[in-house]
Amino acid sequence: MFIMNSPYDELIKDVRKLLELLSAEINKDVTAYVNNVIRAPSQYGYIALPMHSIIREYGDIGNIIKDKILPKLKLIDNVSLINGYLNISVNIAEYTNIVLRIINSLGEKYGISEKCPVGNYIIEHTSANPAKPMHIGHGRNAVLGDSLARLLRFCGASVRVHFYVNDCGDQMPYVGIGYYVAKDTVVKRVNEGVKPDEVIGIVYSVTYAVSEIKRLSKQIEQLSNEGKYDEANKLISERDEWVSVINNFMEKDKELTEVLLKGLGRFEDLPLMVKQWSRNYEEGDEYVRKVIREAIDLVLRGFRVTLDRLGISFDSWDFESEVAVDNGGVFRVINELSRKAQQYVERDNGALVFRADKYVQDLKLWDELKLPKYIPKATLLRSDGTSLYLTRDIAYALWYWDNFKFDKLIRVIGSEQAHPQAQLRLALYAMGYQELARRLIHYSYEMVNLAGMKMSGRKGVYVSLDDLLNEAKSRVMDIVRSRFSPEEADKVAEAVAVGAIRYSFLSVSPNKPLTFSWDKVLNLRQNSGPFIQYTYVRTNGILDKVTEIPKAQIPSNIANEERELILMLGEYPEIIAKAAQELRLEYIIDYINKLSLLFNSYYEKYPVLNAEPGVREFRINLVNAVKTVLGNAMNILGIPRLRRM
């Protein structure tokens, strides 16, 4: 038996029937106009069809519709022709009955429709370098990726979520060498309860700073010997900055920093040692692998704690060394690209380069692969034979292709990686994997800005995701502490903090920079996670006083605010389908903010439990419908639902 799941679709079916009947009346097929439905100005109706050419040719079709067609329709009660538009008004009593019936019937599944995309998806997101705690920018990545997965799963798609562990990156030798000289102190700190990624973050930053000081000191000495004092003085200033970085960590953890300085001081040429460890790790040196992987595992343990707080989990943690290097992936990329696109692979000062710039120009692939107009050439191997991140990334994409069946591979990666991601798809295309190149989506997002602060992970200057969550929780705790027992206050504050942070990361389109502001993040009046949670709690407060949801009775007079709520509730499956089709989570954010504003305005104006019989039952059902829709949307966005707040 066919089950209705979208009230708005039922209305559009009536619009289609109207056009079919009109086509018969005027002897011209106008059914295609159903694809041109837009919102009408509120004073004219609910939806409208631009039918200028039909009106010019056939005159006033309004009378034909009113006299001969409207009596045959169930959900349309009036039409008007204004400036070439056919404006359509809804039979609100009939439509209300359908909206409430569908929502009550489907419950937590309300929002799914035939328009929702299905199929197999892989979403790769977060993939923060395992050298330090995740910062605020990683938070936006993680929440975007997790919410996309939730949305597509809600729609019925099969979704796998992957975290790409960049263990072959340039940062890892600093982590490994620092951990090697300070392992006992690192383990001690972790056993004392310090978050392991925070401990390794200090190890990485101090080791990097020491390496830079050693490198700069050697250059300064050489320039001074050559009499180039102005150049030497510039480097002295730069070296002083790194010395101040170490001094900052002395204040943060003196013991660990001193252990690092003493241990690292034993190495005469630390920068060279870093390069050697990088090469050894990629080549599978057993000892170097063991040391670096121990440190990485500590960082990932810390990552999981942070991600768990946000309700984020992964199906797979993929180590770059395993999925792109050990399996011969890098060799495969170089071999196949050199063989299948020989004229586009060349040597440049010893480095191996793929001429992605020339390849895209020759094949005109900008539109097919949705590429930026400017594509630089891509270095695949350095002159010393070591691979670059891009080369390993291409191998990783091939690993996906070999091991999983998917319709789309969505990679949530910052906009600054637009060119490497374009080069990756071009390389895959040139290697003969055209379908993989088409199915790979770079889900780009812009950075998160903090007023008055410039972040630098290498210098240890950043706002960690943990700090952000803790600050949000602390601010909320100041408000709720007096309302709940200590245990419940802690749970409420944590849930509100998570809702606030997740909502803020989703509230701005990914292609726009996000400026983080506490005034907006914790705004209880509009457009914030706490505002949505507060609205949901309000619906609970009403329904908790009702033993069961009564059978809805549709009153003869429906207030304007009730009418607007019904129309909005009926549109929810359309919003979900559009968000899933276009991968635009901000559509859902905008919808639930407007729904919450409308409901709160209605709540302040109209009694529910104290309304007269008949109206009371209707309003209880209306409140329950709002609660259902808000709850469903909150689940997709990962905003915790609360009964009290």
Structure commentary:
This protein has four domains: 7-90, Gyrase A, domain 2, CATH 3.30.1360.70; 120-170 and 320-449, Rossmann fold (3-Layer(aba) Sandwich); 172-295, no CATH class; 465-637, Isoleucyl-tRNA Synthetase, Domain 1 (Orthogonal Bundle), CATH 1.10.730. With 645 residues, it is an alpha/beta fold. The chain has helices spanning 7-26, 52-58, 61-69, 92-106, 136-155, 172-191, 196-225, 229-252, 254-264, 270-282, 286-309, 320-325, 329-340, 356-363, 366-369, 389-403, 418-430, 434-439, 465-480, 486-506, 518-521, 529-543, 560-582, 586-605, 615-637, and strands at 38-39, 47-50, 76-82, 85-90, 120-124, 158-165, 316-319, 345-348, 351-354, 378-381, 408-414, 440-445, 448-449, 514-515. It has a five-stranded parallel sheet, sandwiched between helices. A four-stranded antiparallel sheet has the order 1-2-4-3. The protein has a three-stranded antiparallel sheet with strand order 8-9-10. It is globular, with a radius of gyration of 30 Å. It is 59% helix and 10% strand.
